[in-house]
Amino acid sequence: MKKIDSTKNNIDLPRLLARTSEDTSSTVLGIINQVRSFGDTALVEYSLKFDGIDIGEKPRIMFREELEKYCHDVAIDRLTASQKLAIDKAIENVSWCAAKSIPKDWSDTGPDGQILGERFLPFERVACYVPQGSFPLVSTVIHTAAIAKAAGVKEIVMVTSPSKDELNEAVAYAALQSGVCEIVFVGGAQGIAAVALGTETVRPVDFICGPGNQYVAEAKRALFGTVGIDMVAGPSEVFVIADQTADPYAICCDLVAQAEHGSGLEASVLLSDSMELILEVETELKKIKSKLDDNPGFQSVWENSLFLVLTQSISQAIELANTCAPEHIEIQTENALDDSKLVVNAGAIFVGPYSAEPLGDFVAGPSHVLPTNSSARFTSGLSAVSFFRRTSTIEIGRQAYEKLSGPSKEFADMEGLIGHGLSSVARNQSKESASNE
Predict the structure, then answer these.
(1) Taking the CA atoms of the chain, what radius of gyration do you get in angstroms?
(2) Which of 97, 103, 336, 413 would you call most buried, defined as having the most Cβ atoms within 10 angstroms of its Cβ?
């Protein structure tokens, strides 16, 4: 944990927060090439190498019918009533939020009489990557698959690592309720390659979404173009902007929540114009630190990317946050709503003292799959729109053609494109030829 006084010296916060991991590009490209060349055989070998699991001659796929039976016979009985209620509540809110952002087709007459429009069609088949490493990410199933279902995707595939144990009961129930039609038990870069390229057993998809480690992220980056992706996301980040009215214990817990994810590369930052608040938060953090002594990822964040920053004002705090464009920004100030409107670069903004970031991770509504590493400057989190392809429609009648063909010919001539020019006025030439006959 580091305290920084930005009132005395300018700070380069993006540089301080720069987090690097090992270069995985060559390793991932090798994995992708092996999957492309050898299909299921490569998946079997990588599952043994990376997961320590012999999956047999081909990867396991659990189809919808088997998932329904497993949930009915096993999973539901293992879940408490409150656990099922929590999953159902999250699906309800995430689906409701997704429905609000479904794009609508439109058509209208343009200035020259041309009829223009856009059609939005959901993808046919998508893959949702759900990590099951240190923690079974039940919420990630919902924050990807339930949105795809709301968008109207026909085939939703969940991709996750193989396991010696049965599928986690909460993950299974969330997958069933979120509309997953099949589960492919192949993790890591090889799992991404399998659903992007297809193998003898795994059918390829149109689009891949969901978080993962650096190998998953690099595989998505490398395969973009072969398949659509949501984003290339990195470790989680939270910036808390707070003044003297904020609760130091709540802030402490919010900072810890992001730091405990496990990679050790997460970032937790408090920006405040109150030194008193910073000192109180520091005290609370030291109290809670011992509870996470067995989490090496948290200890790494504590040492390298947990910052308590004193700013001259809340305005300066917001300016610093906008420069970093983090995944999450919490606004815990006296004028939280007004202050939140000054935030322009963030994956998600949490407004007010009760808007704890973990509620967004789990049950509030918007997807927790969000841009990281300053990419909120130019991209957005996963939403229903992510699962649609947009197609323009153009209908030009005779009167519109007469207005547009000449200007189109001028562009063709300016760009030296003979064929474009001929095509632009071909209908006029056809009419002239017909009238001369």
Answers:
(1) 26
(2) 336
Rounded to whole angstroms, the Cα distance separating 51 from 189 reads 12
Alpha carbon separation from 280 to 28, 275, 331, 409 (Å, rounded): 45, 9, 18, 70
- Say what the pTM is: 0.93
Integer CA distances (angstroms), 352 to 31, 333, 337, 402, in order: 45, 7, 7, 57
CA distance 413 to 400: 20
d(CA 340, CA 44): 49
Percent of the chain with pLDDT over 70: 97
- The pLDDT tens digits of the residues spanning 401-433 come to 999 999 999 999 999 999 999 999 999 876 655
Q: What homologous superfamily is domain 25-231 in, according to CATH?
A: Nitrogenase molybdenum iron protein domain (3.40.50.1980)
Domains 25-231 and 234-378 share a fold: yes
Q: Given pLDDT bands bounded at 50, 70 and 90, which one contains residue 7?
A: confident
| Other CB atoms within 10 Å distance of the CB of residue 74 | 13
What b-and-e string marks burial along 204-230, b requiring 16 or more CB atoms within 10 Å of the CB?
ebbbbbbbbbbbbbbbbebbeeebbbb
Each domain of the chain, given as residue ranges in start order, spans: 25-231, 234-378, 397-436
Q: 359 CB contacts (<8 Å, ≥6 apart)?
A: none
What pLDDT, on a 0 to 100 scale, did the predictor assign at position 263?
82
How is residue 231 written in tokens?
């984003």
CA distance 82 to 232: 34
Tokens of residue 87, six digits: 């999953």
CB 143 within 8 A of CB 94: yes
Residue 136, strand partner residues: 132
Instruction: Say what the pLDDT of residue 19 is.
Output: 67
CB contact burial 88-107 (16+ within 10 A = b; e otherwise): eebbebbbebbeeebeeeee
Q: Convert the pLDDT of each residue in 12-38 to its tens digit.
A: 888 888 766 678 899 999 999 999 999
Backbone angles phi, psi at 269, to 5 degrees: -135, 130
Sign of the dihedral through C-alpha 241, 244, 247, 253: positive
* Residue numbers annotated as active site: 327-328
Class in CATH terms, 234-378: alpha beta
User: What pLDDT does 208 receive?
Assistant: 98
pLDDT of 10: 80
Quick one: tokens of 18? 């720069």
Question: Residue 19 in contact with residue 324, Cβ under 8 Å?
Answer: no
Mean pLDDT of the chain: 94
What residues pair up with 392 in beta bridges, in sequence order? 118
Yes or no: say if 158 and 135 are a contact pair by the CB < 8 Å rule.
no
